[in-house]
Design brief:
- This is NB-ARC domain-containing protein.
- Keywords: Coiled coil, Leucine-rich repeat, Nucleotide-binding, Plant defense, Repeat.
- Belongs to the disease resistance NB-LRR family.
- GO terms for molecular function: ADP binding.
- The strands form five sheets. The chain has a 17-stranded parallel beta sheet, with helices on both faces. Strands 2-3-4-1-5 form a five-stranded parallel beta sheet, with helices on both faces. Strands 6-10-7 form a three-stranded antiparallel beta sheet.
- Strand 8 and strand 9 form a beta hairpin.
- Helix 7 packs across helix 8 and helix 16 packs parallel to helix 18.
- By secondary structure, it is an alpha/beta fold.
- The longest helix is centred in the first third of the chain and has 36 residues.
- The radius of gyration is 31 Å and the shape is globular.
- The chain has five domains: 137 residues; 140 residues, Rossmann fold (3-Layer(aba) Sandwich), CATH 3.40.50.300; 174 residues, no CATH class; 126 residues, no CATH class; 184 residues, Leucine-rich repeat, LRR (right-handed beta-alpha superhelix).
- 37% of the residues lie in helices and 14% in strands.
Length: 970
Amino acid sequence: MEAVAVTIAVNAAKTVLERLLGMAENAVTKERALLRGVEGNVRFIRDELEMMRSFLKSSTAACPYAAAGGWCDGCGNCRRSAVRNTWARLLRGLAYDIEDCLLDADLVLEGGNLADRHRLAKRILGLRDRVEAHKERSQMYGVFLDGAHRPTPTEQQHLQHDDDDTRPLLSCEHNPHTDDEDDDGNDWWEVVIGRDDDKKALIKRVKKKNAGNNKVVSVRGMPGVGKTSLARMMYNDAKFIRRFDCRAWVTVPHHHTPPIGYFERRLREQLGVDDGRDVSAWLREKKCLVVVDDVSSPEEWQHIWQCLAAIGEDGRIVVTTRQKDLVRRCGCEYELKPLARKESLKLLFHKLVMILVSYFVFFVHFKVYKNELPNNTKGQANHILRRLGLPLGEYNGRGLPLAIVTTGGELISSKTSKEWMNLVNHLGSELNSDRDIIRAISSGYDGLPYHLKSCFLYMSIFPKNHVIRCTRLLRRWIAEGYIAKHDMAIEKVGRMYYNELINRCMIQPSKKARSSMAVEHCRVHGLVLHKVILPMSIVENQLFIMDNHCRDPQDDIRHLVVTRWKRHGHNIRKIDLTLVRSLTVFGECPLSLITPKLRLLRVLDLEDTIDLENDDLKDIGELPHLRYLGLRGTNISKLPSLKKLKCLEILDVQNTKLTQLPDGITSLEKLCGLTVGVNFVQDLVDNMAENNNAEKCSGNFLETLTDDRLPSLQVLGVVYIADGKVARKIGQLTSLRKLGVDLATSKGIGMELCHSIERLVQLERLEVRSKSLEFLKGIDRPPPKLVSLRLCGNLGKLPRWMSPLNDLAKVKLLRTQLEQYDIDVLGNLPNLKLLGLWEESFRDESMCFRGGNFQKLKVLYIEGLEKIETIRIEDGTLPMLEKLWVKKCLALSDSKEGLRGVQFLPSLNETVVTSCGEKPHLVVALRRKISSFAIRPKFITGKSIATWKQRMRNSFSRFITWNNTTTFFM
C-alpha cells in the first residue's frame, strides 16, 4: 500500500510539474513575443500619431468657444461640429499619451533593462487597443473627416508649408507705435487717433483743484476701451508734467500676491525718494503725479491708499479700473467711452497702413487720415466696422480699440477681398456685449495658421499683465516642440512666429529694444487671456492653474501653473503630477513640488520665484525628459548633479547666487544654451557700487572639457575666467554663436582667450569684460561672422582687426577710453547700425562725426561721458540716423555748440537730451533746429524723475541688445 501511495504521489507531482512547465513555457513564449513586438508596435503608434496630428490640424473649429467647451449662441457650425469637437478632444488626449510613450520608448530602447522593456511593451499594447477603440467610436457616433472644418487659403498655404521643411519663411518685422522712456503700462494699441479730446478732458479734470480723496481721478471703462493708453498719453504729455516735481507709474500685479512693502518700494524708486526719507513726507512736500494702473478690487485700493493718503494739495493720483463700485472710493471719475465710427475707421486704416508699410504695399501711398482709400477697400472697411457694431450713421458706443486693432491685424494677413469678407462673416452681427467683443477678437485666432495656434494658446501660462521676455518664450516653445525644424536656425524660425503674432495683434508689445527696433517683451491683454485663451487652453492644452482660489484639479494635467500660492500650502498633494509637461511658478514655490513624479516634465520654469531654496531642487536630476530649466533671478546658490538630464537644452541660472556649476555639465550632449553669472546692467551697477565678484559664475567646469563634449552648445555666458587653461578650452566649443566672458586681471589668460576666439568661426556675438582689454589687440584672425561686439574695460585704441569686419552691425563700449581717431575708425564700418558709448568710453572733450562716415548708423547712444563738452555732426554723415540720445553728460556746453549739426540728419525721428543739468540755451537751439524739419522729430528733454540706479537700469536694459535680445544672454 505504501508503494502504491508513493507511486500516486510521484505521478501527481509529475503532472503538476508538467503543467507548471507548460505554463512557464507559454509565458516565456508570450513574453518573448511581447518583447519582440515592441519595435513594431512603436512604429504603429508613431504612424497613428502622425495621422492624429494631421486630423487635428484639419479639424480646427471655426468657433473657438465651442472647441473649448465654452459658451456659444448655437450657430449652425457649432451644432454640426459638437460631436466632432468632443471626438477631437478625446483624440488630442490620446495623442498626448502616445507622445509621452514614444519619449519613454526612445530611452528604454537605447539602454533600458528587461523590466523597463516589459513595462513599455504592455503600455504600447494598451495604447494600441485605445487607438482601435477610438476608431470604432468614430464609426459608432458618425464622426467623419468630410465634415471637418476646411482651412482658409492662408491655412492651406501654411499646412502645405508645414510638410515642406525646405520652404522659406516670411519674416514679419514689428513696427513699434510708441517709444516711451518708462514702459510700465504700455498698451499694444496705444495710438493717439481718436483720443485727443479725451486726453484734454482728463488733463483738465486732473488739474482741477480738489481736496482730500478728491485728489484722486479714476479712469473707468470696459475691457479693451483703452484706459491705460489714455492714462499713458496724459502721463507723457510734456507740457502737463511740468506742473509736477516727480511722477510714478505703478501697475498692480495680479499674478501673485505683492510682498509687503511692494507698492511703497515702487513709489520710492520712481519718485526718487532720498535714502532715509519717508515716502509719506516726500508726497506731502513735493508735487507728485502717481498713476496706479489696473486696480481690480476695493481691497487692493484700500492697501494702495494707505501709501498715498499723505499726498499734498498739489499732488494728483490717477487710477485706471473697470470696476464701477471702486469709483466711489476713488473720488472724481472720468468714464472713457468707446470710439466713434469716424475715429474707429481712422484707427483701423492706421493699423492697416502701419503694417503694410513694412511690406511695401500700395496702401501707404494714400492719405488714410482723410479716408482717401480706393472705393472698394473703403466700402469693405465700413462694412467691417458695421459688423463691429459701428453703423455708418450715429455713433452707438461700441468702438473698442482692442477689437478694432485686433481685426486690423487679421485683415493685414488676408491677401484677397474674399478672405476679407470671410473674416467679416465671422464677426457676428452686432457687438452689443462683451461676448460679441470677444468673438470679434477671436476671429484673429481663427485666421492663424495651425502652427501659430499652439504658440498662441501657450501664452495662457503667463498671468494677466505679466511682462514676458521674448527669448524666454521662444526657448519654451522650442522645448515644447512647437517650432518646426527648417533650414535656418530654429531660434530664427521661432522669432518669425513671435513677430507674426505681434503683427496680427494677438499679443501686445511691452518694452521695446530701441537699439534693434524689435519687440523684446510682450504681454497678453487680460480680456484676451481670460475670455479667449484660457478656456481653450484648459481643454486643448490640458492646462491647470493652481492658486489660492483653485478648484479641484482635472484628471489629466499637461501644463501646471502655480500662482498666488503659499509656500506651506498642502493641497499640492491632491494633484497628479505624472503627466505634467511644463511646470511654471509665479510667486512662492510650494514645498515638495519638484519630485520624481514629474518624470514627463519638459519645461521647469522657476524664474523670479520667491524663497526658492537649494533643497527644493534636490530631485531635479531625476527628470529624464527635462529640456528647459529656468532659474533666473532666484536665490539658489548650489545645484545638484545634472548629468542624468540627457535631454537638457537650455540652462538659465543668470542673476542667481550660483558661483560654481555642478559636475556633469560637460556631458550634456544636447545642451545648446548656458546662461550664467550676471547680465551687463546688473554687473555695471554692482561694479559702480564697488561690489566684489561673489555673484560671478566660474568657468572652471570647462577644465574637464574634451573635443567630443558639448557639441551643441551655441550660447555661453557670462562666465568668469581666472585660469588660462579654461580660456584655452573655450576654443573647443566650435559651435558657439554667442560668447560672453569676464576675465580676471592675470597675465597669460588674455592671450589664451585670443587664440580661442580665433578658432570660433561660427561666432556672431562677442562680449568681453576685464579691467584692461589691451590683450584683444593680439587677435590676428577675428571670427568672420561677427555682427555684434560689446567691450567693457580699458582699451586705449581700437584693435586693427575691427576695420575689416564688414558685417559688424552693433558696437557697445564702456570704460574703453577711446579718442577721436577711434570714432573715425568706427565711422568707416560699412554696416554699423548701432553705436553705444557709455561712461569712460571716450576721453576727449570734443567729439566729431565727420562727413561721409556712419552711412548706415540708425541709433546713437551717448551716456555718462563726464568730460565731453561739444558734439559736432558734419554735413554728409549719419544720413540714416533715426535716434540720437545724449544723457548724463554734465559738462556739455549750454549753447548751440553743445550739440551742433542735428539739421544735417534727414532721417531723425527722435532726439533725447536728458540728465545733463540745466541747459536752457542748448534746448532752445535744438528746438529751433528741429522745428525746421518737414516731419518734426520727437524731442525729449527735461529733468530726471527717477533714482540714479533706476535710470541706469532703464536705459541700459533697452540698449544692451545682441541680435534682438535686450540683454546679451536672455
